[in-house]
Amino acid sequence: MAERIPTPTSPAPDIVRCAYLELVVTDLARSREFYVDLLGLVVTCESDTEIYLRTFDEFIHHNLVLRQGPVAAVAAFAYRVRSPEELDRAVDFYTELGCRVERRGEGFVRGVRDAVRVQDPIGFPIEYFYEVEHVERLAWAYHLHNPGALVRLDHFNQVTPDVPRAAAHMVDLGFRVTEDIEDGEGTVYAAWMRRKPTVHDTAMTGGDGPRMHHVAFATHEKHNIIAICDKMGALRISDRIERGPGRHGVSNAFYLYILDPDGHRVEIYTQDYWTGDPDNPLVTWDVHDNQRRDWWGNPVVPSWYTEASPVLDLDGTVVPLTTRTDDSEMSVTIGADGFSYTREGDVEKGFKLGNQL
Amino acid sequence: MAERIPTPTSPAPDIVRCAYLELVVTDLARSREFYVDLLGLVVTCESDTEIYLRTFDEFIHHNLVLRQGPVAAVAAFAYRVRSPEELDRAVDFYTELGCRVERRGEGFVRGVRDAVRVQDPIGFPIEYFYEVEHVERLAWAYHLHNPGALVRLDHFNQVTPDVPRAAAHMVDLGFRVTEDIEDGEGTVYAAWMRRKPTVHDTAMTGGDGPRMHHVAFATHEKHNIIAICDKMGALRISDRIERGPGRHGVSNAFYLYILDPDGHRVEIYTQDYWTGDPDNPLVTWDVHDNQRRDWWGNPVVPSWYTEASPVLDLDGTVVPLTTRTDDSEMSVTIGADGFSYTREGDVEKGFKLGNQL
Amino acid sequence: MAERIPTPTSPAPDIVRCAYLELVVTDLARSREFYVDLLGLVVTCESDTEIYLRTFDEFIHHNLVLRQGPVAAVAAFAYRVRSPEELDRAVDFYTELGCRVERRGEGFVRGVRDAVRVQDPIGFPIEYFYEVEHVERLAWAYHLHNPGALVRLDHFNQVTPDVPRAAAHMVDLGFRVTEDIEDGEGTVYAAWMRRKPTVHDTAMTGGDGPRMHHVAFATHEKHNIIAICDKMGALRISDRIERGPGRHGVSNAFYLYILDPDGHRVEIYTQDYWTGDPDNPLVTWDVHDNQRRDWWGNPVVPSWYTEASPVLDLDGTVVPLTTRTDDSEMSVTIGADGFSYTREGDVEKGFKLGNQL
Amino acid sequence: MAERIPTPTSPAPDIVRCAYLELVVTDLARSREFYVDLLGLVVTCESDTEIYLRTFDEFIHHNLVLRQGPVAAVAAFAYRVRSPEELDRAVDFYTELGCRVERRGEGFVRGVRDAVRVQDPIGFPIEYFYEVEHVERLAWAYHLHNPGALVRLDHFNQVTPDVPRAAAHMVDLGFRVTEDIEDGEGTVYAAWMRRKPTVHDTAMTGGDGPRMHHVAFATHEKHNIIAICDKMGALRISDRIERGPGRHGVSNAFYLYILDPDGHRVEIYTQDYWTGDPDNPLVTWDVHDNQRRDWWGNPVVPSWYTEASPVLDLDGTVVPLTTRTDDSEMSVTIGADGFSYTREGDVEKGFKLGNQL
């Protein structure tokens, strides 16, 4: 296991929330069909090479930037900070960690001005910004809403080989862990952490990394998520529904995972719980609890464990992967070597498909 | 393939709807937990050996009779007919077919009086009745409703080796076929048929039979079905969720399949469509269409194809099975020999779990 | 009170269901905004003077015909019959009653062929047809569905001065009464009656008539109805929401009443109950029960009682009104002379707005 | 207009969220029927004189204390602060304002320890606390959830004569204003303000005060709110539904107002929007906009404007009222002297019931 990432003496920037994702896609027109025609995200502006999209409740310029490029990858996980001054803190914090740091007064993308991008100690491209163009909040514009209306960017999910190491760094950055998945021997398989008072702004999922596991948008009700599934069936792209819909154990949210044309994974998510109290209780799940990932015990498809999106460094080059050396959640839970239970202590395997792989 | 069942010269009884199921269970107390505590069916009356249950919108005495017995099985699929005189027609119709027919003026179960039971030509125990005790329709009794409130008995589903033969007999009995699953070579894998103007009062599913595949209750909304899943998770019986929730291709309904303590399969079902016009168009699905059984392409678990409940003859003896000789839907669609497509003509297998068995 | 309408010796035509409404509108473009842009009805075909619309689950050519004309009115309430031969029965039935009857082999509107129109004994223009063009059933076409997707034509509602007289005639025509509103002195204020096994295909509402009270379309879930309200707010036409959304006492359905540009009233309706058994219990409501029209006791706006659409005779002339001489539901329930109770025997008036008019 | 309340030099306590309400009720058994049997709040503990209740997602001891007493009133609006040290700040802050301040190491109610109560400068009894007993978060305990499951305490709403004066004080206390209702002449009728990143932790509503307008609990979905209405109908207490359900203009939430046995008003609320960004845009509504209080233009019942609950001082004595001298929202919007529009500039009054009072 790698050494702990040092805690900087410089204070961390005060992060408000995950704010947008910059995503490189290889066929912008096909991606537009997915994010605009299928999911109904609102186009703030677009060009031949970029599309800026937002959710219905958003008042900042965008929650997602699609940029045409040669390799499907994540260019930036962007967080909004509480004031312009926090950018100085971000510079100092990461400089002290020896990370590459780049600040641009004019911003890295349209709509955002003064911004700092870093490649963080676990390899991810992170942006911090405060100054941003305001646009119309379309929460009341129901004549524009579709049956699966997406109303907020909810969270990111990152793949990293050493979850405790990554989580400790995120805590140094001011995040609080809300839930995690462990086993009895001390292996941590995943951890969820938040700035805003929901279950997460991002999560660390154990695996070869750095990669992006998914980006998640929130809807209001469960039927909104079902409407997206129904529409994907009608469009004969049900093979892009990877997992769900279902009820998470972790977070208690109702969820769906779908894949964009490049294989970037998108979660649609609704109804987790308030975590904003300082003593909010941590929820720890046993990795063998078959209801941890799906409260109804429905199987996690193997691709969900193995596939993820590359991330880019600040030069736009794909960051090479470090292999996870801890146990993998997939191998300890499904297949010949793994096991899961519905009731602790229960050894019966049952008929669930996950046991039959 | 067996010979066609003759069409009687006697007119068929005029059937209104599927009305109740008599089910033998091996542990009445555990079954009560499932049907009353979990699903919230209303107890009309009960004794040490029997429980009479109904749905919230029902005004006849019961939709389900649970009877303690040595072997878990179906004792009767009961249909309501339009008038007392239809019972005479039922007697003549089945007598002409050479079936065993038994009529009891006092009825076979509590709440029902004059009734006819037969073992039909495909081996199933069927009851016809008109006279029945009325009870309070609890549609307005919202103080009694639970989050997954079941409001109607919707349909039966029967397993039989030769679907066209069974379906032709049901058409003789006055049913109309609304949907079916076929392949290009003329094999029929399943057929749905109705008296009331929904997609079905019963369906014939190809397999070793006679057996009951499932009994289905209707709810009003999709969240009601999700509530049942969530509750099963909370009760740590998610391993009794067999398949779903999902959207059917066939019927367009939202569905869930769960298993009672004896393994009797129960479907929760909502929102199919009106089929009551005389020229209602038949919908035929290709057996290889991966959206036929789940519109989102989610895999059908093998047990769903292979497991079913025995049925009893009029003496209470389990009816022996006849093996299906036609292709099985499971073998032609999943595993090494089968295939399914999302888009007709598309040969890519994709990541769906069903392809990985 | 007028004499009872005689029962013809000719058998009544076998009616399957209410099938479509032909509606004269004074500004076709504005009506198109309402029915197509706002409500999302599907355009089967259209011209400069007519628009043919259907719901998502429909497979016959249309459920609503909008025809440009000088006076906003109903041109026909159209019912589908079970076979072509039923049209002969319709001719004989109404001819015996002395009604004007017109039969056209080519039909009265596009998509429908052989059809009979009559002005019935209570003054309404009624059409019967069997032959009709089939179109694609869009139940599975979720990519076309809107948040308030309308899936079926559910019922008509007619205003007539003498409800028992009209209801008796409808029973002669083969309808069954499912619910009604009465007082202790024998006055009947409204009655609901069905052919298909829902609460109604049409209702008779006491008032000066013949007029159309409303036409109702069904959605699947309550949130679909709320989505229509939200959209009307966003479009700043909330003043066209007349009443609701709410839960009916009568029918137990969830409802909304909105007004089209000509003031034709449209109901959006979901989740009544099965009525198809021959002994389905009649539900009688006390006119003073404040939950009969809205289960939550929310007030009925006076316009809902007083306003309705004229109907045309077979020459296209507005049918003159006959005044109701029985008590009006509005006057006996609200205002200085009326009263309503929440609990029978309770005399407290409470704070509800209906009491303050 | 009264003078502005001075801004203390002492820093305000860092408030996390509105946490619980202590409510005096005159008949504890009847209140239990309302809050426990009807609404399904979870009983943490209870005695002959007190009931401690919480919502399903809560992990602190309670969100509502019902205490038997002689006069129906609010005894405390309680906020949770970020650390024990904030209590010292609360003492200093209010002491500097000349308010009565009382601190009890053992707390004022069960489950809470060290707490500060004050009578704030606008007359309300406010509590601050950090130390509190943790209880089981029942978010996953779906077997306990009812169809109208309440998952969070969302906000308070207070009546005060001078809204800008009260709002300025709340801003001094660290709140941010998210929305308000004004007219063109500078009168402010109501203001919403938050600590947690929802539309509000409390609102100030113009009227004779100090009084409590309502306390609001959150549900997940709109159907949960409808289920509460349906149940109140079934229990024949629909006369305790005061207003709604409906969609708010302000907050964009779906809402319902009901009255407990003492007339304390409870709102059920779902789906407002994220307000946690430091530059979250203020939304100002015109008092004459008929969609401000109900997005569908449904009328606000007069009692909603005029009735509210008394509040107690720290000795348990009802605080006398100060009369509002600014215009009242009711008088400027409904009745002979008021007006509301659906579309700005539109003078037509329409048929809406609110115009007919």
UniProtKB/TrEMBL annotation, chains A, B, C, D:
Matching entries from InterPro entries are given as: DHPA_dOase_Mn/Fe, Glyas_Bleomycin-R_OHBP_Dase, Glyas_Fos-R_dOase_dom, GlyoxalaseI/FosfomycinResist, HPCD_C_sf, VOC_core, Xdiol_ring_cleave_dOase_1/2
Metal-binding is among the record's keywords: yes
PANTHER family with a match to the protein in the record: GLYOXALASE FAMILY PROTEIN
Q: Which SUPFAM superfamilies match?
A: Glyoxalase/Bleomycin resistance protein/Dihydroxybiphenyl dioxygenase (SSF54593)
* Alphabetically ordered keywords of this record: Aromatic hydrocarbons catabolism, Dioxygenase, Iron, Metal-binding, Oxidoreductase
The name under which this protein is listed is 3,4-dihydroxyphenylacetate 2,3-dioxygenase
* Cofactor dependence: Fe(2+)
The similarity comment for this entry is: Belongs to the extradiol ring-cleavage dioxygenase family.
- Where does the VOC domain lie? 17-131, 152-271
